[in-house]
Amino acid sequence: MLLILIIPAFWLVLLIFLFIWKRELFIKTWHEPYFSDTPILIESDDWGPGGKFHANRLQNLLDCLAKYKDSVNRSAVLTADVILTVPDTQAIKDAPASFFPRKVLDRHFPEIYKVMMSGVENDLLVPQLHGLEHLNDEAFATLCIAGDSRIAKASTDSNWWDWESLDSPLQAHYVNGSTLPTTPVPAAKAKEIIDIAVETFHRLFGYPSLTAVAPCYLWNDDVESEWSRHAIQAIQTAGYRCVGRARDGRYIQDKSLIRAGDKNTRSQIYLVRNVMYEPVDGKNTPASAYLEAIRSYRQALPITISTHRYNYTRSEEESRSSLEGLAALLSNLTKDLAIPRFLSSAELAEAMINPEQDIINHFNKKTWPKVKKINGIAKMGPFLSRLYYRHPKLAAIAYISGLIIPCWLIYQIASPKKLH
């Protein structure tokens, strides 16, 4: 009998100690957004200029997405992180130093642009600003003129399309990665390329981008300031921000931990990719992506799937395998999750900013019911789940002390996130 009283008393004292020790963590985690309906986002970088066969590959991807419906009968939707131009490599060597010749998406790659616009109309694709190009223009021009071997194929083949295969540092947009450590572009340069990109994006898609994601996750305050000036409300991340790369190639993080819904000093919201499906890299399978998605589901988080263009635009076999895996992943998620909701990044951002607003696809004017959130004590289950998955020390203390038993019972009773 005495033991029955001692154990709960011990747990209560431990909880008080943990709250004092981790007060800020607990409060911040409690005030994060929790979703009753589960947003599912498919984020895919680098769509834009490419070989003509890219149009067919993109159409295949959109056809795949059209097969899967959420709880309000909306099809899966691709947030296509768009690159607007590529270098005109044949014109660079003869161009004036102050001019960087570019090939633009709609003018030079009409087949791909047509598929994109069809995807927008059919509510299968929502464009998002990725960058004017997926490289640093000044660095690329300098290397091109110098005949640098790192860009030999790209600079000599007018039909080059596989820009994602360039050396990683050379793919950065807002830093010069031609030598390491990288150097950030000056604020005036950031303003110039973002001004052009925003204007071009609006012209191409008929509505401004409300969200952005930086190539290679490399950007800084100057870039965020320019995005804010153009009314970009949200920034897609991988859970961190990097301002450059060190001499050894290591990414330099100045915000090493970003949670979905965090805000910067300009009140822009950060979004976070938390499911990796990059099968061509040989690391992420449909099974591993599903487990990551379920972990997010149990925490009442949005499920944001990262899957880059190259998974679908390289060899026929790789493309087919990537599509089959994505189909399996979406099939399992729509079957197993209680209330799945397919959204774009811009729509998720607006749902966080204005929770009572219906979902609006501004690019085709279609609307969908609002995404429901969890409030009050009902958050306790997914709140405990976030602490468990994110903080191994707290989980270890819970196991050693036995506190995991009441926490598990509370999660089972209080969590609205049950799998079918």
Annotation keywords:
17 helices, 3-stranded parallel beta sheet, 17 strands, 6-stranded parallel beta sheet, 420 residues, 44% helix
Written overview of the protein:
- The chain has 420 residues and is of the alpha/beta class.
- The chain has 2 domains: 336 residues, TIM Barrel, CATH 3.20.20; 47 residues.
- 44% of the residues lie in helices and 16% in strands.
- The chain is built from 17 helices and 17 strands.
- The strands form 6 sheets. Strands 1, 2, 5, 13, 14 and 15 form a 6-stranded parallel sheet that branches. It has a 3-stranded parallel sheet with strand order 8-9-12, with helices on one face. A two-stranded antiparallel ribbon has the order 3-4.
- Helix 3 packs parallel to helix 6 and helix 11 packs parallel to helix 13.
- It is globular.
- The two termini are 40 Å apart.
- The model has no long low-confidence stretch (mean pLDDT 94).
